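step 4 of 6: structure.
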Amino acid sequence: MNTANDDTINRRDFFTLSTYTAAISALFVSILGLLKFPMPGLFPEVSSAFKIGKPEDFPVGSTKVYQDKNVLVSRDAEGLYAVSLVCTHLGCIVSTTEKGFKCPCHGSVFDGVGSVIAGPAPKGLNWLDISRLPTGKLIVDTSKTVDTGTKMTV
Amino acid sequence: MAFSNFFENLKRFPLIFRESLIRHDKPVTDRARSQSVFSNIFLHIHSTRVHRYALKPTFTFGLGVMAAASFFILLVTGVWLMIYYKPSVVEAYGSIKDIQNIVPGGQFMRDVHRWATNIMIVSVMLHMSRVFYTAAYKRTRSFNWVLGVCLFVLTLLLSFTGYLLPWDQLAYWAIIIGSNIAASPVELTDALGITHIFDVGGLTKTLILGSENIGQEALIRFYWIHCIVLPLLLILVLSPHLWRVRKDGGLARPDNLTEKDLEGTPVDANAETVFKNAPEKTYNLMCLVKGKTPAVGRGPEQTVSSWPNLLVAEVAVFMLTLAIVCVYAFALDAPLKEIANPSVPENPAKAPWYFLGIQELVSYSAFMGGVGIPTLALIGLIFIPYLDREEQVLGRWFDNATGKKVAWHSVFFSIITCVGMLAFLVKFGWLRNWFPQIPQIVITVINPGTVLLGAVVLWSFFIMAKHDSTRMGAISIYTCFLVMFLILTYFSVYHRGPNWDFYWLKSQWPMH
Ligand code: HEM
Ligand code: FES
């Protein structure tokens, strides 16, 4: 250490200090960058909406299951509604039973409108948004949930 | 002159080269062997001499070495499997089929890789238990225990990320469940109503999956984590783990050893004269070394040279591990289910056996079983050496008669509470069966898992107070966790069937 003058810093100390500073800040910045890297600005988008046909395809009292979309569409006197078959517990696909739905993975049981009756699911099955295209065709969007009981009058 | 040197060197090349490569005498004497252990970077994780007690088979059972051996087997077979495996959702399943059907020895390679995982998991858990019950986490070894806990977690993560790669039904539904467990803090943030501003669960999930959905991005991330990140991290943590064993003066051992303690361990007849014919040595380094300095002119007591004694023991354990894995692989092929089908989960969808204990907990509450309780257990493990600092005998299984008694009592306590709880659950159900409208947060907080956890904590505090000893408290809590883990694992392997319902026997499962 050069202590001749408190205001000056000798070349060696300056060099040491700047090396440490550079190393530590480079480390810090690179860690930030490395952490940010796995979060892309745009996620690969999988189309979540699909056509289900015309309202006439669903007579009152009918139910249709879209296996590859994991969605059930049903129509009763009050209207048309879509229920997601993805279990709200950990994402297995529930199967339909006489009284409602049942999940094979950890045994959650849901009633006819998808509310939990037993098992670990934290909430009822999601109800999905149904909308109508200008052509009259209906579209279900699995990424848009609506309140349980929201039915589309047709 | 230069010419003759040139030819002379050329002629002597083999000799000079050998001398440049190996810088010690033929390893036929203890001294030369010590030299080689000392001067070779790989052998140097051993000290040149090792205490006889560390070689006592019934002390360590070679479990740490067995974990390391199975990790090595996994590295080799894994790197070889990478030649054929294709991390693409379209091709992954087919490439595994190819490995099994058209690659020479492919089925065997895959079996060995899969079964060595089992051996590694079992030996890591047993090794941890041996370290725990012999109090080998005390004094200077606290941090090495923490490194051990990291290795334990890395081992489990390696196994989890690995069994996703075949992209069969098991793999697919395991990623679904696994990533949703990562997202399960939503249960908590939902209850607090803050999910829209602070969605930790969702963020972790998208980070793991690289997308909102499960597909190519997720598979390649798991592949990357399994083949690159975790093995590197494991080696990074394992190196100081082994190094510290050496720096702590070898394995923990009792301060007052009796002849009986050392029964059946190798003896060095020349131990008394070891330092006599050593070359002049400067002991400047000794200024840095903590603890007692060795007595010059007298052999360190009760040690033998690492080569051959320790090395042979290690190779023996390695060969034993390899033999077990090979027999296992010949007898049983690694499972491969049907190709992943996103609309039909397996029923029942069961994880590999070592995760089934957790799966049972998850069937009570996703957040508590999958995140809450495991995290608490890990924090508890890490804290053991810092909360239990009692001075005591090291290196004896269960310390003494009291330790043994506490361990037995804890075994009975956990069998009774855990089996009782499961019986109650199967017979009467839980809160939601009685009060269908109950808010989720109540179930998240009060479920069979948390009740068992509470019982174990109370019991251990009771034991700690009764014996006025933190070590006894630690023995009871560790034992309870271990026994309950085993019971839950057994229960969900054998008594959980379709829809996660209870069955006495698999033959009673309904056909579908
Ligand atoms: C990949 C996993 C692991 C490997 C390969 C490994 C390897 C080893 C080896 C070879 C030893 C030498 C002694 C022996 O064989 O018992 C050792 C000692 C030790 N291990 Fe591990 N280990 C692993 C995981 C763990 C875990 C999970 C813990 C505890 C949480 C742990 C804590 C310790 C401690 C404290 C020692 C020193 C014991 C003593 O001084 O007596 N290790 N480890
Ligand atoms: S995923 Fe449906 S109960 Fe667990």
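step 5 of 6: annotate
 - Residues 276-280 of chain B have pLDDT under 50 and may be disordered.
 - Chain B has two domains: 60-255+315-341, 350-512.
step 6 of 6: archive
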